[in-house]
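In the design runs reported in the main text, the only information available to the sequence generator was the tokenized backbone. The following block is the verbatim input for one such run; it is reproduced so that readers can re-run the procedure and compare outputs position by position.
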């Protein structure tokens, strides 16, 4: 799952939201620079990734697109799932997706100063250029793939990627919808367990 999905699956806690979003940006020595206040969000991110990567529905989705995207199939799957989340947004939220994204940007700005400088810069860039809004349209997703190709040897692998996905994966979106219900439930249970653990800690200290 990519940035938008991780934001959607976060709790109302700004530190958890931020930790969840920035986890993949934490490389090398930045791990030592991360404020522990974001640790639960990082834990949630890894829990979501483990659940997603091991899920049979997701494995089947990746298998469906492997003939076209080969070793890049998991990356394509992550990005395309954000597009499908927006496309099917009304199934999961009563808030307009644009309003949700703006609220994410606002919440990030409230804690961004606590991030290491390199991650601060990336998140600030995300906010300033409204990255998450990119996932609303086919053109936006194509732009994401277009930017990615410059890191690759085979620069044609993402050519008209979304057009191919929509033409060749009739069962893909249905699989995504089924999976989303499960990952939403998983994230909700994770948050309930977190709150339960906090309550236990409070009681044990009284």
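Verbatim output:
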């Amino acid at each position: 799952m990519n940035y938008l999905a991780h934001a959607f699956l976060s709790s109302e806690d700004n530190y958890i939201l931020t930790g969840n979003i920035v986890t993949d940006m934490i490389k090398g020595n930045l791990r030592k620079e991360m404020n522990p206040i974001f640790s639960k969000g990082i834990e949630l991110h890894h829990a979501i990734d483990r659940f997603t990567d091991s899920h049979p529905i997701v494995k089947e989705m990746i298998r469906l697109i492997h003939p076209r995207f080969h070793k890049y199939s998991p990356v394509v799957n992550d990005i395309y799932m954000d597009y499908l989340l927006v496309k099917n947004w009304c199934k999961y939220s009563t808030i307009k997706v644009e309003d949700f994204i703006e609220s994410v940007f606002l919440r990030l700005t409230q804690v961004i100063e606590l991030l290491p400088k390199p991650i601060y810069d990336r998140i600030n860039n995300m906010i300033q250029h409204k990255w998450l809004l990119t996932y609303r349209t086919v053109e936006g997703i194509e732009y994401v793939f277009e930017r990615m190709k410059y890191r690759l040897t085979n620069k044609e692998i993402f050519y008209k990627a979304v057009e191919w996905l929509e033409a060749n994966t009739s069962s893909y979106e249905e699989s995504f919808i089924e999976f989303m219900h499960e990952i939403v439930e998983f994230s909700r249970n994770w948050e309930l367990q977190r709150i339960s653990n906090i309550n236990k800690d409070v009681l044990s200290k009284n």
